[in-house]
Amino acid sequence: MSKKITSFLIALVLCLPLLGQNEWENPKVFERNKEAGHVDFIAYEEAAAARKDDFGASSNFLSLNGTWKFNYLDKPADRPMDFFKGSFDDSSWDQIKVPSNWEIEGFGLPIYTNVTYPFPKNPPFLDNDYNPVGTYRRTFEVPADWQDKAVILNLSSVSGYARIYVNGEEAGMTKVAKSPSEFDVTPFLKKGENVIAIQIFRWHDGSYLEDQDFWRLSGLEQDVYLYALPKVTVWDFFLKAGLDAQYQNGVFSANIDLRSFDDQVDQAGKIKVEVLPVGSSKAVFSEEKSFSSLNDAINFSSNIPDVAKWSAETPNLYDCVITLMDAKGKTTMVTSEQIGFRTVEIKDSQLMVNGMPILVKGVNLHIHDDVLGHVPTREMMMKDIRLMKQNNINAVRTSHYPQNPLWYKLCDQYGLYLVDEANIETHAMGATNQGWFNKEVHPAYLPEWAPAHMDRIQRLVERDKNHPSVIIWSLGNECGNGQVFYDGYDWIKERDETRLVQFEQATENRNTDIVCPMYPSLHHMKSYAEDSEKERPFIMCEYSHAMGNSNGNFQEYWDIIMSSPKMQGGFIWDWVDQGLKAEDENGTYWAYGGDLGGLNFQHDENFCANGLVSANRTPHPGLVEVKKVYQNVLFSWDQKSKELSIENLFDFTSLSDYQFTWELYKNGELQTSSSFTVNTAPHAVEKQKIKLPKLKGEDEYYLNVFVRTQSATEMIPA
């Protein structure tokens, strides 16, 4: 038998599972030629530029954002089949901006649904009589100095099943939204004009794993860019910045992974790692190591005395600069990542950061812009962080998928604790705490779906593993608890011993470090708080549903939380209303489910409007109560002793930096006021005598006490 026939038969056997089955309806095939997950970075020429972390300032970065040619059709059978060819005529096509969601740009219908899938439920199959397909094309030129470099295409988030072509050749395929999809396109590039073509199906088998409570939108929804690397390059790095047993000195380690894109290039060289406080030129750690091949383990470690520690209250950061040199010592690339020294652990049934038990005063956050849909912007991220910091919110759960990489950098910089969640939700198939699902069809319990689940979990961790703001990984949301989630938990615990893992679907099974229910009853909370045999922290992944004029019994939650050390808070559902700005004959309004042409589809009306702030971030009245209950300073008054008790709930902040005043009102009129000084340490209580005039029994008095910031920061005014 000839080699050709043998090869043909082998290929035929391998393809048998696919015969008669569309690729977009096959969970066993969830990617092709896609790079494994790793830290997002760009190569720079020198350290100063790398520390600024401005991708656009690097000669190794080329943005493909902008205007693309675009074709939209309602079903796969009508899609253009030869769209990827260089000779294809796209002159009659529409134009679309990238990044964007094509429904927001007027192609197809925005659909909002909470639980029910927007297509008939029959995994892994779809109704292909209505499964919109968007096809993109554009040209670009590769910079002349990239000729001897490897070139990677990064699609920061593609919502849909996407096939990617460069100059008529398939670069690869992806089915995962919200995580980067990267492809080595070096072999396909040429001098002069290049053509990139991408075809995206709105729904696919992976859509069964993306059944979150949000607008279902499609397309190239985050940045698209190319970046260049030397043929022998730094490819990944795990930077661990912890604290010693006394939480005083830094414990630093770096594991560097190298990669070669050309076996003919010399594989020997040097790596230098430096750690410098942000804004300083004086390194607290610097070491250089040589390597003779890419198989050499390249590890650095050191204890660094008296580091400035990172927490949500004190977000002190260091630049870790990594310099790659060839065997002669010539620099071939530099990159940099910001790190923060902090330790996350469980002790005495409590979540601890830097040895202190913290209270999680959190919210859940979707990526949402009332004009742009699921396209994130720095402006909106900064608005969110500013409002959160001004309203005593210290933590965010990235519900229910990874956020844009910039979000993590900003949370590192300004100080927010993050629960980083994998993009897995199969709510309409049933969830563990609902108990009405069929394990014979639920993806979490079927082995053919397991690799796609694990891929999403691993990509979450590998991209975000260096961010100090990420203190907890989450395996997913409302998605069952099959064997793959035990495997995912075990994989994370082996890969990253510096953080905790939570999973609401695990309830109190072994594959969660934190008991993290959603919407528990007050009775259940009291029972857990009083049970001395419960040894895990209790931190609600969702609670105090903020729809309408809500959060009204919020203090009752916190009365229970404050009653037991292992009750440590939770994440309000949710931060922002998911309204989309629209206009009709009556004026401008925020559209919700059933609007924008979706009335005859499955939709959940205004259930997308659950936020503490409106879609443009105008605070709702409920946020005022949240700010009050989340406050970090508590007051109580002893009428007999005329003493005011001040309790400092901050974990790392003394009250000496704040202004304190009291005012006495009699029958609604101000009688007297005074300022006073407080130096209460974190987690301490201080008592102060307040000299009040004699109070008459028949009158009504109010003693109002205020604590205010003395100096302004970028996030909080004086």
From TrEMBL:
Q: What is this enzyme's class at the first EC digit? A: hydrolase
**Could you tell me the keywords of this UniProt record?**
Glycosidase, Hydrolase, Signal
Q: Which SUPFAM superfamilies match?
A: (Trans)glycosidases, beta-Galactosidase/glucuronidase domain, Galactose-binding domain-like
> InterPro entries per the record?
Bact_Beta-galactosidase, Beta-gal/glucu_dom_sf, Galactose-bd-like_sf, GH, Glyco_hydro_2, Glyco_hydro_2_AS, Glyco_hydro_2_cat, Glyco_hydro_2_CS
Please report the stretch or stretches of sequence annotated as the Glycoside hydrolase family 2 immunoglobulin-like beta-sandwich domain.
233-342
- Give me the reactions it catalyses: Hydrolysis of terminal non-reducing beta-D-galactose residues in beta-D-galactosides
Q: Which residues form the Beta-galactosidase domain?
A: 644-718
Transmembrane stretches, start-end: none
Q: Tell me where on the tree of life, at the top rank, the source sits.
A: Bacteria
Pfam families linked to this entry: Glyco_hydro_2 (PF00703), Glyco_hydro_2_C (PF02836), Glyco_hydro_2_N (PF02837), LacZ_4 (PF16353)
Q: Where would I find the Glycoside hydrolase family 2 catalytic domain in this sequence?
A: 344-633
Statement: the UniProt record of this protein carries the keyword Cytoplasm: no
The reply on keyword Amino-acid biosynthesis is: no
Enzyme Commission number(s) from the entry: 3.2.1.23
Query: Signal peptide position in this chain?
Result: 1-20
User: What family does this belong to?
Assistant: Belongs to the glycosyl hydrolase 2 family.
Q: What is this protein called?
A: beta-galactosidase
Q: Which organism is it from?
A: Reichenbachiella ulvae
